[in-house]
From TrEMBL:
Organism: Actinoplanes auranticolor
GO molecular function, one term: acyltransferase activity, transferring groups other than amino-acyl groups
Name under which the protein is recorded: N-acetyltransferase
SUPFAM superfamilies: Acyl-CoA N-acyltransferases (Nat)
PANTHER family membership: GNAT-FAMILY ACETYLTRANSFERASE, SPERMIDINE N(1)-ACETYLTRANSFERASE
N-acetyltransferase domain sequence ranges: 6-167
Pfam families with a match to the protein in the record: Acetyltransf_3
Length: 176
């Protein structure tokens, strides 16, 4: 699906090297809940064979820049149940030289539009560490509002951080 700047598309097994590299970059993972390290072979297997196809409860999409077709990150809507119509959003852009150019804002807006229009979600939620200013600014810009504050739930470099919970209702999405 197309935004103004990015294209969102299904992930391919050949994306494994990029995903593996981003997951091992401390700057990219600074505010992300990271898993234990995985080998390139494990990430390749996960993308190619183990992961089930995109479905209502878990939609994982690569973020490509329209101008040069470069894969720069991914977005995910997960945890949705038809009875509730609420999904959680994650985004990370692993190619750091593409930061600060509006790609995250456009990718978040585009996947939210997909969630509301195609999946008929009622609400999209997320959590973010407030120190991650670029992320919460992008979320605010497309209409997410802060709904709560979880005290000391994220640990990094020997310190605990709070997280904001944010939410966006169908009809609240702000267009570019
Ligand atoms: C956070 C992240 C998604 C932002 O992506 P991005 O493409 O650089 O964001 P955008 O260019 O759309 O910018 C969003 C807003 O943040 C601002 N911003 C960008 N970089 C910033 C920085 N380093 N510090 C403060 N604000 C910054 C932009 O100016 C913009 O705000 P504005 O429109 O009000 O001026 C990206 O840096 C990333 O993936 N980081 C690693 C993973 C991560 O932290 N994911 C989010 C977890 S909740």
């Amino acid at each position: 699906m197309l935004g103004d700047l990015v294209r969102l598309r299904a992930m391919e097994p050949s994306d494994a090297e990029a995903l593996w590299r981003w997951n091992h970059d401390p700057q990219v993972m600074r505010w992300m809940q990271d898993n234990h390290p995985q080998s390139l072979a494990q990430v390749t297997r996960w993308l190619g064979e183990e992961r089930t196809r995109n479905e209502y409860g878990d939609v994982l999409l690569g973020v490509e820049v329209q101008a040069d077709d470069k894969l720069i990150g991914l977005v995910r809507l997960h945890g949705a149940e038809p009875e509730l119509g609420i999904a959680e959003l994650d985004i990370y852009l692993g190619e750091k030289n593409y930061w600060g150019k509006g790609y995250a804002t456009d990718a978040v807006r585009t996947v939210c539009r997909y969630g509301f229009d195609k999946m008929r979600l009622h609400k999209i939620t997320l959590t973010v560490v407030p120190e991650n200013e670029a992320a919460w600014r992008a979320y605010r810009k497309v209409g997410f509002v802060q709904e709560g504050r979880l005290r000391e739930v994220f640990r990094r470099d020997g310190r605990w951080y709070d997280q904001y919970t944010m939410g966006l209702l169908a009809g609240e999405l702000i267009d570019a």
